[in-house]
Structures are given as C-alpha cells and as structure tokens.
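User: Can you recover a sequence for this backbone? Please restate the input before giving your answer.

Assistant: Of course. Working from this structure:
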C-alpha cells in the first residue's frame, strides 16, 4: 500500500512516517505542501491521500482556516480525477458547542463560527461528490514533535518555569498522534483489501478530561520522571482558564463505529502521554550525557 501524506512537518505526518517505518506493507510519500495537483497525483499513483488536521481551528486566523479548506477542495478535485481515496482528518472543534452526550458520526457539525462553517462546507462537498473518502474526526492531538503537537509546547513551557494556562470548563478526549497513525494505516490496509467502508469516523482517546486536568497530569508525571532520574527542577505552574461561565462544554466523540467496522480500539491518553514523557526524559538524559562528554 502506498500513501501520500501532505504537510510534512505536521505531528500526524511525522507519526505516520514512524508507523510506516515499522511495517513492510506500507510505503509513504510525504509532500511538504498542503495540497496536490492531479498531475503530481498521477505520477505518484498512491492508494490514498492523507490530509492532517488543523488542530485548533477556533484559535486560528479565519484566513488560515479558509486557506486550509481551499487546499482540501483542490485535493478533492485531484483525487476525483485520478480516483484516489481521500482521507481528511478534522478537529473536534467543528462541534463548536459540543453535546451533553457522546457525539456520533452521523451528527454533522453545525458551528456558528464562519471559518468553521467553511470547513463543514468542504466536508459536505466531499460526502456528496466522492464516495472514496474517509473524514476522520479527532480529539485534540498530542505528540512530542511537529506542528500542532501540543504536548511538546506544554513540556517546553513547564521546564522553562513558565505558567501554562489551560481551560478547565471544556471537556474533550486528548488523542495521541501515534495512536491515530497506527489506526489510519490499519483502516486503510483494510480498505485496500476490499473493506469498502467509506464515510465519517470518530477517532479519539479514552477518558474525557479538561485541558487543565490533562496539563496538570503532564506536569505531575513530568516532575515524577525528572525526580526519579535525580534531576531537581522547578516546573512552571498550571493555571485554570474559564471560557463558559454557566456550564462545562462537552466535546466528546463516540468512537464505537471505528471499533465495529475496523476493530480499532481507542488508546487511553494517560498511557500514551506517559509513554511520551518516558521518551522525552530519555532523550533529555541522553543529550545531557552527550553534552557532558563533549565538554570533558
């Protein structure tokens, strides 16, 4: 199976590259840009094109969100012309107002924000015009490297002694970029083998939490990891933010369909974040030893 991944520096693109390197049945072609032409697609001849998500479109300039939607529209045209499957990952923020119950795939987002509505229009067009698509809605992605990675920024600020502000009244499911990459490759392997299960799927981590709780847990585990390695450091504090004064906004994706159709189980975010913190600490320790050796 050959996959074409756009936006090379995105945390999901890097995670997909790591996942493909562990497998003998998956070849990746990674493009720096965020769009693709029909001629380039014909030359590469992939089985599918994967477009990583805007992780936080609500916090972005409307022009940047519109540019992303325009790029996806261009990719759609190219994929239609070459009959190449299109996989578009989108943020759970399209469900701007959330729901009190877990959100099923058949619930099409209906945001009030104009730029988010532009993304929904692109999704509507994909569903209406091209059967060979997967629209994969994700919780907030976290990873150690790449753009939109979130976790690396949290760690960087904490280690620098800077305060990290995080909302305590928005509930969602943090989602590991590595877990998404593994799931996407598995889903597409089944599609290439004839599953023909196109459409929209939700893919997020288990255990809904607030950004404040997630960030606080990262700080606690990071401190434990560093102290366990004999490193004394004063981390920055985590400060709560409130955006909704009347009630908490719940933006929790129901991921039952991806399990029923593809057998994909969601990975607990605590385990994934703990694994990444282990990796970060090992890299930090290795770099410190290298620096010590060089100075000696």
């Amino acid at each position: 199976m050959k996959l074409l991944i756009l936006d090379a520096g995105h945390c999901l693109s890097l995670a997909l590259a790591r996942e493909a390197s562990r497998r003998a049945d998956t070849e990746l072609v990674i493009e720096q840009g965020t769009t693709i032409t029909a001629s380039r697609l014909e030359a590469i001849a992939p089985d599918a094109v994967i477009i990583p998500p805007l992780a936080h479109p609500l916090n972005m300039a409307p022009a940047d969100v519109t540019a992303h939607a325009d790029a996806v529209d261009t990719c759609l045209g190219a994929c239609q012309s070459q009959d190449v499957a299109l996989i578009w990952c989108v943020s759970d923020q399209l469900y701007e107002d959330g729901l009190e119950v877990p959100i099923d795939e058949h619930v099409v987002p209906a945001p009030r924000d104009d730029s988010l509505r532009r993304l929904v229009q692109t999704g509507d067009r994909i569903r209406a015009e091209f059967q060979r698509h997967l629209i994969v809605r994700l919780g907030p992605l976290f990873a150690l490297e790449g753009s939109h990675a979130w976790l690396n920024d949290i760690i960087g600020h904490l280690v620098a002694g800077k305060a990290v502000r995080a909302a305590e009244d928005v509930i969602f499911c943090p989602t590991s970029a590595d877990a998404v990459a593994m799931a996407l490759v598995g889903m597409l392997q089944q599609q290439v083998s004839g599953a023909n299960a196109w459409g929209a799927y939700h893919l997020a981590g288990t255990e809904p939490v607030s950004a404040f709780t997630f960030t606080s847990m990262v700080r606690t585990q990071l401190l434990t990891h560093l102290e366990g390695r004999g490193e004394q450091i004063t981390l920055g504090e985590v400060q709560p933010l409130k955006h909704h004064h009347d009630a908490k906004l719940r933006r929790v994706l129901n991921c039952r369909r991806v399990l029923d159709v593809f057998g994909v189980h969601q990975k607990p975010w605590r385990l994934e974040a703990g694994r990444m913190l282990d990796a970060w600490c090992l890299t930090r320790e290795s770099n410190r030893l290298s620096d010590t050796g060089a100075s000696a």
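That completes the design. The domain at 2-142+175-205+252-267 is CATH 3.40.50.720 (Rossmann fold).
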